[in-house]
Structure formats: C-alpha cells, structure tokens
Amino acid sequence: MTPSAILTALQTQLRNSSDLSYIPDTNIFLGRRTSIANYPVIVIEPSGDRVVGRTYPYENILMKVIVAGGINASNENYQLVGSGDIKGLLDLKNDVKKAICSSNTLSGACIDLNIVDSEDDSAEDYPVRGFAITVEILFRQNETLRS
C-alpha cells in the first residue's frame, strides 16, 4: 500500500459516511486550501510517517494524518452545540470521529487506525470555527517496490 492510497481510502471513508451526509463530497479535500468558500469543510493533511517494524521486504509504517474540520457559525448561539439541522463545531467533530472509526482498516487498505488526540481552535477567526483530529494509520508496504 502507498501513502497516497491510504489518504485516498480515508477520504473515501469520510465521503461515504452517512454521519457526514450533510457535507458535500466536494468539501472533503486532500491537502490544505488557501481559501474556502463553502462550509462545513474537512481537510485531510499528512503529518509525517515512520517505520515501526520490518520483515524484509516489508515495512510497517505508522503515518500521522491531521483531519481538520470547520464550520461558519452564522448563529453564535449554535457555534459549539447545534440544534436541529444546524451543526455546531462539537457536533461536526463527533460526526467526523464516528466516520473515521467506522472501519479501523479503511475497508482493508491499512492494518489499523487510531484517533490519538484532537484540538479545537481558539476562535480567533470567528465566525469560522475549526478543529484538528490527529489520526495514526498503520499500514504495510513492500520496501523495494514501494507498493
């Protein structure tokens, strides 16, 4: 498996999640964006990897990925906890976590994945509010073929 295949599998899992059906697939991105026009949004960004085991010719690689989410809180009363059809920041974060954990193997693309932590923004950019979830994904790769 390749790192790009792992990121694509994570994006597909988020796009296919019924918990995130209110987010258009076009708002779930691989890689940072300089400007975002529509919310809510999810951005998947790799944050490094390391070899955690090796049995030639295979390596077990632990890749760290940041899954960031954001909303435009047009109603300040619902910026954290929504109501009805309005999703607050904590609602979106919980839905993203459910979607990430819906398959701990990304439908067979990896060995395992774990959410290791999450951080909420400081509200400096209000009305845009966001969070970052750190996910560690363990996968195996043939070190000579890089596949």
Task: Describe the structure in your own words.
The chain is of the alpha+beta class and 147 residues long. It has one domain: STM4215-like, CATH 3.30.2000.30. Helices cover 18% and strands 39% of the residues. The protein contains 2 helices and 5 strands. The model has no long low-confidence stretch (mean pLDDT 94).
Looking at this protein, list some descriptive labels.
five-stranded mixed sheet, 147 residues, STM4215-like, elongated
Q: Please give the share of residues in helix.
A: 10-25%
Proportion in β-strands: 35-45%
Principal-axis shape: elongated
Oligomer: single chain
Q: Which structural class best describes the helix and strand composition?
A: alpha+beta
- Physical arrangement of strands within the biggest beta sheet: 1-2-3-5-4
CATH class: Alpha Beta
Topology readout:
Elements (H helix, E strand, L loop, with lengths): L2 H14 L11 E3 L10 E15 L2 E15 L16 H13 L10 E9 L7 E15 L5
Parallel strand pairs: 1-2
Antiparallel strand pairs: 2-3, 3-5, 4-5
How would you summarize this macromolecular structure in one to three sentences?
With 147 residues, the protein is of the alpha+beta class. The protein is built from two helices and five strands; from the N terminus they run αβββαββ. The chain has helices at residues 3-16, 89-101; strands at residues 28-30, 41-55, 58-72, 112-120, 128-142.
